[in-house]
Design brief:
The chain has 154 residues and is an alpha+beta fold. The chain has helices spanning 13-44, 64-71, 105-114, 133-143, and strands at 76-80, 84-90, 96-102, 120-124, 127-130, 146-149.
Length: 154
């Protein structure tokens, strides 16, 4: 006599739902962690770059002339382009500090990514200043911004 087998029953709804629910929760948690990590990296990088700017200082962006006036010099303009301006001022020790202003924050971030060999920079709201570390510290007191060590990023 042959034994009659009953067909296998399909899995119950709860058997399907719980593993799927767990998978969805794990997926959402992973995406959330990834998003938080991306925001953290973006806030350090320039874009990131480890300065909290590419953290912009409050208020409107300053022009080269305004930056220079706050430091007590008259700037020599070197570059006037559609997306940035560059100039410099002498330092009391006979050196120079170089200022770059940007029309957009994105332009500033892109410039910072390219400027890997410039070492330490003072970074503010759509402006960057390059000089010796000692000069940058003095200028930071007058201008604000964040000192950013570009050589250790990228």
């Amino acid at each position: 006599m042959s034994e009659i087998r009953q067909p296998a029953r399909p899995p119950t709804t709860s058997a399907i739902t719980i593993p799927r629910l767990v998978a969805v929760v794990v997926l959402l948690f992973g995406v959330t962690v990834l998003a938080v990590r991306c925001v953290a990296v973006a806030s350090q990088s320039a874009g990131g770059h480890g300065h909290s700017g590419t953290t912009a200082t409050p208020g409107p962006p300053l022009t080269i002339e305004q930056l220079a006036a706050k430091t007590g010099c008259t700037p020599k303009i070197q570059t006037k382009a559609a997306d940035l301006r560059q100039g410099y001022c002498p330092t009391p020790s006979g050196g120079r500090f170089f200022m770059t202003t940007f029309t957009t924050t994105q332009g500033q971030q892109q410039w910072l990514e390219i400027a890997q060999d410039y070492g330490k920079l003072l970074v503010g709201n759509r402006w960057v200043i390059g000089a010796s570390p000692q000069v940058l510290e003095q200028l930071q007191v007058k201008l604000g911004g964040e000192i950013y060590d570009n050589a250790h990023h990228g």
